[in-house]
Design a protein that fits this description.
The complex is a heterodimer of chains A (275) and B (295).
Chain A: H1 2-32, H2 37-42, H3 54-61, H4 65-96, H5 102-110, H6 118-130, H7 136-161, H8 166-173, H9 178-186, H10 191-206, H11 210-215, H12 224-233, H13 239-274
Chain B: H1 2-5, H2 8-25, H3 27-36, E1 39-40, E2 48-49, H4 53-61, H5 63-93, H6 101-109, H7 116-126, H8 133-141, H9 157-182, H10 186-194, H11 199-210, H12 212-228, H13 231-236, H14 248-258, H15 262-294
Antiparallel strand pairs in B: 1-2
Helix pairs in contact in B: 2-3, 3-15, 5-9, 5-12, 6-9, 9-12, 12-15, 14-15
The chains are: A mainly alpha (275), B mainly alpha (295).
């Protein structure tokens, strides 16, 4: 009995220590972001002597943080919408319509899971300008959509397979077209898998660095990731700005995570395990 | 009904948008990239077919590339060592109904929603020689004058990056394991308890073998993502100091997009792709044998 009590104590010590490891760096940069340089160097453990809230204001007023945010939202939301539309349609054709090549097509799409983005980026860089997509925003969104297709189609198609066939049959017999049956009968049943692929796709686009780095060169097109990176280089000597930029980039993620944690946990693990 | 379901124009209309976008962005560029890798092509020169020249240079004359391969392998193995055991232990601890189980699970998972860029920048500061968390902790408990540039020294740069990565990913692998453990039939645990098995035996004879498919998923994820690792290196060390933390992906980026040697960069990315495919295939094979012999 005593040994068991010991064991369970050790268990909790482990869990608490790791919790501190997760929280501590976040808290440290949050507090340091409100200090000035001198305070950061001489008073690492204390609260700020003077709270410099204005660095946060400057981020938005002077350093264009708002634009980066809007751009990230633009890429992510538009990418998600396009991805969901094309993937739901493709998954429907693959899982519920009858044609010879449906299995092969799914296999062909799933091959994409093995391909690292790096092996496509050099040709894409040239292709996008050659076929007249001068607007890097559109090329970028199409690229993000394409890389979401394998996982999303797979998740949606496996979910659709479990819906009973009679659902469309009765609708078609009542005079509905097959597209009509798809839109009116099947899509309303897809809330769960669509939530999953939305979370997966949204975070994938929001957090991308490699493609953004190569495709975006105009300041006004920059997303959040490229935006906060610049504080490392040219403003490196003013740590308050760098740190508050990190906080601003993480805060929305934390807030959304707290609101939707179960959905996000499910979505990201389903995306990995099934994909 | 059959006829309605095999209506060719409808099928094409539904499948083609996804198929076309996918083909334009994944298979066609992959083929193009393999083709480029057999050419000498940079910003100034014309694209000329040069056979295996890039690969010969890569494997025989590029010392940095050899260093990259070594670093990538080290990165991979250290990542596995740091992440997998911790993820497994936490998943076992957090499926037994401890107090605050849900809180711990969600907290450990949280770092995965941050971008690689945010986490890298945060750890850039955590490792800062003067103001960083690590050195300040050491100063607090020991040497008051301690100052060490974790990301700036050849010996520690790469390892420091893997620690940052572990901070972000342990909870993710833990969650994959938790979903595996919760799908193990409850009767197995009950039968084991009736037979008088202790906790260690349950872990060894039930959880571990039943978890093999999830361990496979997690190992494939960790392997391919380590081979592709870019964000963390690019931001925290930029491959430095003196290429001590250069990995395949960062080398490819600097050859292709900094030095503008597109043919050479394509050769590196082709090697990277082949490594990703081979390792996924090998891991799938290894686990296939294990899954059937153990369960």
């Amino acid at each position: 009995m005593n040994k068991n009590a010991m064991l369970s104590k050790i268990k909790y010590i482990f869990l608490y220590i790791y919790s501190i490891i997760i929280i501590f760096p976040l808290l440290f940069i949050l507090i340091s972001s409100l200090k000035d340089n001198e305070d950061i160097f001489t008073n690492p453990w204390g609260l700020p002597k003077v709270y410099h809230w204005n660095t946060y204001l400057q981020l938005f007023q002077k350093y264009g943080m708002g634009i980066y945010f809007l751009n990230s939202l633009y890429y992510s939301i538009l990418g998600c919408i396009i991805s969901i539309i094309v993937c739901t349609a493709a998954a429907y054709a693959i899982s519920r319509l009858k044609w010879k090549l449906s299995g092969i097509t799914l296999g062909f799409l799933l091959l994409g899971l093995m391909i690292p983005a790096h092996s496509t980026i050099i040709p894409l860089f040239f292709l996008s300008s050659k076929i007249g997509l001068k607007n890097p925003k559109i090329s970028l969104i199409l690229i993000f959509v394409a890389f979401s297709i394998p996982t999303s189609v797979y998740i949606l198609a496996s979910f659709m397979k479990s819906i009973p066939r009679e659902m469309e049959e009765s609708a078609v017999i009542d005079g509905c077209s097959i597209i009509g049956a798809f839109i009116r009968i099947i899509t309303p049943l897809l809330k769960t898998p669509i939530a999953t692929v939305t979370i997966f796709t949204f975070l994938g686009i929001w957090n991308d660095l490699l493609f953004s780095l190569v495709f975006i060169n105009k300041e006004s097109d920059k997303n959040l990731q490229l935006g906060i990176m610049k504080f490392l280089g040219s403003y490196g000597s003013r740590y308050g700005i760098l740190l508050s930029a990190i906080v601003v980039s993480m805060l929305p993620a934390i807030i959304v995570y707290i609101m939707l944690q179960d959905k996000i946990v499910d979505g990201l693990t389903a995306g990995a395990v099934k994909g | 009904m059959e006829k309605v379901l095999s209506n060719k124009p409808v099928i094409s209309m539904l499948i083609f948008p996804a198929l076309i976008i996918y083909c334009l962005v994944v298979p066609i560029p992959v083929i193009a990239s393999v083709y480029y890798s057999f050419t000498s092509w940079d910003l100034i020169g014309e694209m000329r077919f040069s056979g295996l020249q890039n690969y010969v240079n890569l494997f025989l004359h590029d010392d940095i590339f050899r260093l990259c391969i070594k670093n990538t392998v080290v990165f991979l193995f250290v990542s596995i060592l740091l992440q997998e055991p911790a993820a497994f232990i936490f998943s076992v601890l957090l499926t037994k109904g401890v107090r605050g189980q849900k809180f711990f699970r969600n907290l450990f998972f949280m770092p995965i929603v941050f971008s690689g860029v945010s986490v890298s920048l945060m750890f850039y500061f955590v490792y800062h020689p003067d103001a960083g968390v690590v050195n300040n902790l050491i100063r607090l408990f020991g040497n008051k004058e301690f100052s060490f540039a974790w990301l700036g020294e050849e010996k520690t740069a790469l390892l420091s990056v893997t620690v940052a990565l572990a901070w972000q990913y342990i909870g993710y692998h833990m969650t994959i394991y938790i979903s595996g453990i919760s799908s193990i039939p409850k009767e197995l645990f009950e039968a084991a308890r009736i037979d008088g098995a202790n906790e260690w035996m349950v872990v060894k004879h039930i959880i571990f073998p039943m978890l093999m498919p999830m361990i496979q998923v997690s190992m494939i994820l960790i392997t391919t993502s380590s081979l592709k690792a870019f964000d963390y290196i690019y931001i925290m060390t930029y491959g430095g100091p003196a290429h001590a933390s250069e990995v395949i992906a960062s080398h490819m980026y600097s050859k292709a997009f900094v030095q503008l040697k597109y043919g050479y960069g394509s050769a590196i990315s082709t090697v990277l792709m082949v490594l990703c495919i081979i390792s996924s295939v090998i891991l799938t094979k290894v686990f296939k044998d294990r899954v059937y012999s153990d369960v």
